Automatic annotation (TrEMBL):
Lineage, opening ranks: Bacteria, Bacillati, Bacillota, Bacilli, Bacillales
Domain of life: Bacteria
Record's signal peptide: none
PROSITE patterns: PROTEIN_KINASE_DOM
One Pfam family hit: APH
SUPFAM superfamilies in the cross-refs: Protein kinase-like (PK-like)
Xref: InterPro entries: Aminoglycoside_PTrfase (IPR002575), Kinase-like_dom_sf (IPR011009), Prot_kinase_dom (IPR000719)
Domain Protein kinase positions: 1-158
Gene3D superfamilies, sorted: 3.90.1200.10
Molecular functions (GO terms): ATP binding; protein kinase activity
Name the UniProt record assigns to this protein: Protein kinase domain-containing protein
Amino acid sequence: MKEKIRQKTPELLRYFKRDIVEYERKLNDLMKILSKEYKGEYSLIHADFFPGNLLINTSSQVRGLIDFGLMTMYGDPLFDIAIGWVCFDMYDEFHSNIRKRYLNLILSTLGESVRKELYFYVLVYSFITANFYSGDCSDGHYQWCVENINNKNYWNAL
């Protein structure tokens, strides 16, 4: 993840410096955390869990996962949980407060102790994917990433 952020930094620098409050401090903080040795469980990370990538049968059971791609890697399975959480209704199209409800479900299942990692992985994902869909950072995904990176609650939890 650290290497992916390092690769993205040159192409995102001018946009992030313009749009992210205390960009350099945040980047340094994230890189410092990523420099620490990870001692948790490892698994294949899909990193793009959202409803469109789930294959569901007529009984509404998940039967498959598609679109292994640019973000697929080996690491902490909480990364997939974090991305599934924030991507489920990424742009709040349903106006149903589903992200808050989904977060509460995750925390009630896994415990409050995972909140810090969930927020951390959302920040990492936002740094890496900000220009996935628009090279000039002029789309809604970029704005969504900037909102995440500027979210004080995420940084305060770290």
